[in-house]
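[job 4471] stage=fold_predict status=RUNNING
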Amino acid sequence: MPPAPKILLLSLSMDSFSYPTEGRFQLRWLQRRPLLGLMYVASALKAKGMEVEILDQSVSAFNVRDLIARLRKGKYLFAGFYAQLLIKDKVAGYIKEIKEALPAMPVVVGGPGQLFYEDFLKSGCNIVCLGEAEDTISEVADYLKGEKPLEAIDGIAYQEGGRVLCTKKRAPIGNLDAIPFPAWEMIDLGKYHDHYILPLRKPFVPMVTSRGCVFDCAFCSSPSLWGNAYRHRSAGNVIKEINGLVLKHGVRYIIFQDDLFGYDNDWLREFCSLLIAKKYRNLRWMCVLHPLVFKDNPGRLIGLMKKAGCNLFVFGLQTADPVLAKRINRNPLEAETLRGVIKLAHDNGIMTSIDFILGLPGENRQTIRRSVDFVLQAGPCLVNFHPLRIEPGSKLWEEYQGKSACEFSYKELKELSHKAALTFYLRIPSIVRIISVMMKKTRSTALL
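[job 4471] inference complete, writing structure tokens
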């Protein structure tokens, strides 16, 4: 029997330096999260009987020369890069050097950076997976084994005769429960951490319970990647995955990073009830929430989430100014609604964090002041102010590509973000809340 085809999946680290210098100057100590998308692709390939290896540069130092040496020796069916938007140039640089050294080595790219598929193809990439990759990558492997014609694969881009070709768009996966769980057994979870999440415990994993978003925020590229359809896994399927993570891998914390966690409140109630019934003593979790996620009786639902182990809500409010909110296709009532939700969360012992984007269309010092005043009055535990990065694939990208959306430069927005954060964190109530959280975390860790 011939050996199973071998595939190397790669994740390059997100750093601010040119791609040949990694491994020497990276500031990795603040956050190292395993890439969920890469784990899903690995499990899809393993389900097809293929041998998969993973190299994650955030926890394993290697450069492009090391990679070429490994590919030369390993007899791989293909090398697959998970391309994030912020490192698409770095990925393209790696591909170019690999193809110069090993012209016959097939290279495949997927991930959010797929929006720049032409750049990857020009660098020498053979195939770019567009959209969800679990089914696509398996068919790409079949093609490279000589079992399927390339043009018969939906959802890919490739070059032929100097022309860039895109096949038929692949339909979204209808039944998310049918997707194999991520291949967590392939990585060392102990190497990952996230110091931005104060109540986090190790080992931890990111998870998603749904895909897609019904909203159309102008700054977000999610609709370009997932469409506007909202699909969620069954609550039972999510609990089954959690059970394996706790029992097999000793996971003690879960970061739910859905675009719309709990948007279906009935689903959220069922999920929390099932999780409570499991009686996991040491499991806690956090989630990213839309400010309007709680549609009826929010106090009762938030209490249920607390009982199920949730200890942190992260809200993407982006702005407290109602005019700016409307300009980015957000509900201008979100800020006032969130004020009440924050109080309910704190009453139930759940930490809160709010994310803001400075530099949205029409931003000025008055609108920034409105957002700062909001957090000073609403009193979340944590707050993050980010200068606007206009994402490819978003509506703002279509309108403002290559230019500022407001009166401030990017450098000025960084300074204003820093100043806004200091205004919040240097106040006595903010300091007391953070110290209280850290003391509670220390006490709970000592008791385990």
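[job 4471] summary: Residues 16-27 have pLDDT under 50 and may be disordered.
[job 4471] exit 0
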